[in-house]
Amino acid sequence: MKKLLLTASLLLIVVLGLSSCGGKAQAKDVLGDIKQRGYIVVSTDPNYAPQSSLNTEGKRAADSKCPSDALTAVELQGFDVDVAHAIGDALGVETCFATPGWDTITAGNWANKWDVSVGSMTITTDRQKVLNFSVPYYYTPAVVAVGKDSGLKSLDELAGKPLCAGVSTTYETWINNGDLGLPATSIYAKVPAGATSVPLESDQECAQAIAAGRTDFVGYVTSQTVVNANIAAGLPVMQLGSPVYSEDLAAAFDKSSTLPNDTLRAEIDKLFTAMHSDGRLSEISKKWFSEDLTQAPK
């Protein structure tokens, strides 16, 4: 009997030894998992220039570690893409991108399909129920834009009219006169009485629809950076009036992640704080927006 027990013990030691040599120990958190696999998966919007858009000239490297259903850093471009790339560099891993719909990202419960959202997400009280946020990495004013030949000159003229916005965005919430979940000091204007929303997959699509001749809405609500980019691209639109509210934009983390992601959030907080201090975020902002949007509005 003693000999059998000794033999069984030796076999167990051999098995455990082979296991530890041949396989990696499971990571204790998302940050550890990212470092083990050598890449981070970031969700962002592929149609939200200048924050993020497809780079038709970028070609995936043959030795990329990114999953086959993810985009690599060279296949996207924009402010958010550069910020996400800085995160990967700081962690010493490759940056990969997932491109789910905005409503899917803001709903939480990501099923571990991506590690973090770097997609110009506004921090709101509703979103904080399912997501955690980093410190803000930049700030943008939300504005209303209309067709250049619409004849509209003020926000008051939009009363009772349909406005376009990306689905599940704060822009759609503002049109619907809902609670933005923002500090009162960040809200500058009320929605025109009786305005209604026409949601599209992305608010960038609103401007593209107006340019294509769509007429079931008279304007759209989005970031001022998007409207400026639309105008620079030659789309027949213009900003109407002053900004209607201000957005604090941050990286987001899924509260339902299987592995804890608090250490990843802490690392990104530390990185963003350093990038604010040394001017790296300002440089990226000036590159894509021609102005510094990394300082909190006063």
Write the layout of secondary structure elements.
Blueprint: H1 2-22, H2 30-37, E1 39-43, E2 47-48, E3 52-54, E4 71-72, E5 76-77, H3 79-91, E6 94-98, H4 102-106, E7 116-122, E8 131-133, E9 138-147, E10 162-166, H5 170-175, E11 196-200, H6 203-211, E12 219-223, H7 224-232, E13 237-254, H8 262-278, H9 280-289
Parallel strand pairs: 1-6, 1-7, 10-11, 10-12
Antiparallel strand pairs: 2-3, 3-5, 4-6, 7-13, 8-13, 9-12, 9-13
Describe it:
It is a single chain. With 298 residues, the chain is an alpha/beta fold. It has 2 domains: 30-138 and 249-289, 3-Layer(aba) Sandwich (D-Maltodextrin-Binding Protein, domain 2); 140-247, Periplasmic binding protein-like II (D-Maltodextrin-Binding Protein, domain 2). The protein has helices at 2-22, 30-37, 79-91, 102-106, 170-175, 203-211, 224-232, 262-278, 280-289, and strands spanning 39-43, 47-48, 52-54, 71-72, 76-77, 94-98, 116-122, 131-133, 138-147, 162-166, 196-200, 219-223, 237-254. The strands form 2 sheets. Strands 1, 4, 6, 7, 8, 9, 10, 11, 12 and 13 form a 10-stranded mixed sheet that branches. The longest helix is centred in the N-terminal third of the chain and has 21 residues, at 2-22. It starts with a helix and ends in a 9-residue tail after the last helix.
CATH topology of the largest domain: D-Maltodextrin-Binding Protein, domain 2
CATH class wording of the largest domain = Alpha Beta
Structural class based on helices, strands and sheet pairing: alpha/beta
User: What is the typical, i.e. mean, pLDDT?
Assistant: 92
Can you count the beta strands?
Answer: 13
CATH architecture of the largest domain: 3-Layer(aba) Sandwich
Secondary-structure element series: HHEEEEEHEHEEEEHEHEHEHH
Tell me the number of helical segments per DSSP (H or I, 4 or more residues long).
Answer: 9
Terminal CA distance reads: 80 Å
User: What amount of the residues lies in strands?
Assistant: 15-25%
The major beta sheet can be summarized as:
10 strands, mixed
Overall geometry comes to globular
> Over the alpha carbons, how many angstroms does the gyration radius reach?
23 Å
Low-confidence stretches: 1-22
The level of helicity is: 25-40%
Find the CATH superfamily of the largest domain: Periplasmic binding protein-like II
Q: In the residues, how many domains can be counted?
A: 2
